[in-house]
Amino acid sequence: MALTVRTRDIPKIPGAVRLYRISAYITGVLLLALVIEVIIKYTPLQLEMQLGGPTFFVPNGTAGQAPGTFNLSIAILIAHGWLYVVYLFMDFRLWSIMRWRPSRFLLIALGGIIPFMSFVVEHRMQKAAMTTYHELTAQQAREKESAR
Questions:
Q1: Cα distance between residue 144 and residue 86, in whole Å
Q2: φ/ψ of residue 142, rounded to 5
Q3: For 126, what's the count of Cα atoms within 13 Å in the CB-facing half-sphere?
Q4: What are the DSSP calls for 75-142, one per residue?
Q5: Pick from 13, 39, 77, 121: CA 20 to 30 A from residue 136's CA?
Q6: pTM over 0.85, yes/no
């Protein structure tokens, strides 16, 4: 038997969707930056990214060592890792409000670790959640009208 959204949780859906969408876009963009970083670091290019120096790409192992420079490669790794945790919290919040199957939680979680998937999953989950929200609010309005 499929679970339905609790009546008290219906007003929470738009806010949960909004926070989920924001975290999905941020995680997706950082994941793409991470993919670029891995490609330039672990291919024959052997480069890292840095800010503040005369060049943006520097030989592997030298980023951020000169005074006034910042190792952007490490910053991308750390930022994606921590923001993926935030993405999982937003995923859990939306999933628990909507009372979806556990497999849907795992699908959304995969969106943050497979390049481009966060954008696809975000679009589908946002559409499903907001469709359910509009159906439930319309049903509540009909029930309120028939009670009069």
A1: 37
A2: -65, -45
A3: 16
A4: HHHHHHHHHHHHHHHHHHHHHHHHT--HHHHHHHHHTTTSTTHHHHHHHHHHHHHHHHHHHHHHHHHH
A5: 121
A6: yes
